[in-house]
Design goal:
With 205 residues, this protein is of the alpha+beta class. It is 32% helix and 18% strand. The protein has 5 helices and 6 strands; from the N terminus they run αααβββαβββα. β3, α4 and β4 form a beta-alpha-beta unit. It is globular. The C terminus is likely disordered.
């Protein structure tokens, strides 16, 4: 099944809104990882701190009330946020092969909504929205945030990806960003290498 952008299903899930949330997540992720590089840290302490700080930072962002479209649906440990009319949860996991079983377990509120809509739900209808924070595996990779919509069969219907480096707003398998048109640049002739050496020596006696 080819995934579409969430905004194609509902303009409430615009790239600008998703970017605000994703950037918050990445900012907190960087700080948490930097604070857990001691010899006493392990995968558990890093994972716990990352998850806890992201949860609390989202709560703080929502309580600031600068964006009326961003709300809290459930403030427990299994935080559920609202993006317009849509509920979403977040996980530090692989969006293609999530290891956490809770990814597909609806919260009480999600389950109630699913039961109400189940008779008319089709293969292209999203029943669960999930954010995934994927940590870079190497120094050459970037951390990524995915926003994924699943149907009732746990198939990906919509997908959006964000990275700090390229500011990517893409459907993971069906969208190619348009090329950026750059202003023309003026080229100046290169200086003779001997002149550059003379200038370098004059600055560094």
């Amino acid at each position: 099944m080819s995934a579409v952008l969430p905004s194609e299903l509902d303009p409430e899930l615009s790239a600008d809104r998703l970017q605000l949330i994703a950037q918050q997540m990445l900012d907190v992720l960087h700080g948490a990882l930097a604070d857990t590089q001691t010899e006493d840290d392990c995968a558990y302490t890093r994972g716990s701190l990352v998850w806890g700080r992201i949860r609390n930072s989202l709560m703080r962002l929502i309580r600031a009330r600068r964006n009326r479209w961003l709300t809290v649906r459930h403030s427990g440990n299994d935080l559920v946020i609202g993006i317009g009319p849509h509920a979403a949860r977040f996980f530090v996991d692989d969006h293609l092969r999530p290891r956490k079983l809770r990814v597909f377990l609806p919260t009480e509120g999600e389950a109630q909504q699913l039961l109400l809509n189940l008779p008319g739900v089709g293969d292209r209808d999203v029943v669960l929205w999930r954010f995934f924070i994927e940590k870079a595996r190497t120094d050459q990779e970037e951390h990524r945030v995915y926003f994924v919509g699943y149907n009732a069969a746990h198939e990906i219907v919509a997908s959006w990806c964000y990275t700090e480096g390229v500011r990517a707003f893409v459907a993971s398998d069906s969208y190619i960003p348009a090329p950026v048109v750059l202003d023309p640049i003026e080229l100046e002739p290169l200086e003779d290498e001997s002149h550059q050496d003379d200038a370098h020596e004059s600055r560094h006696p």
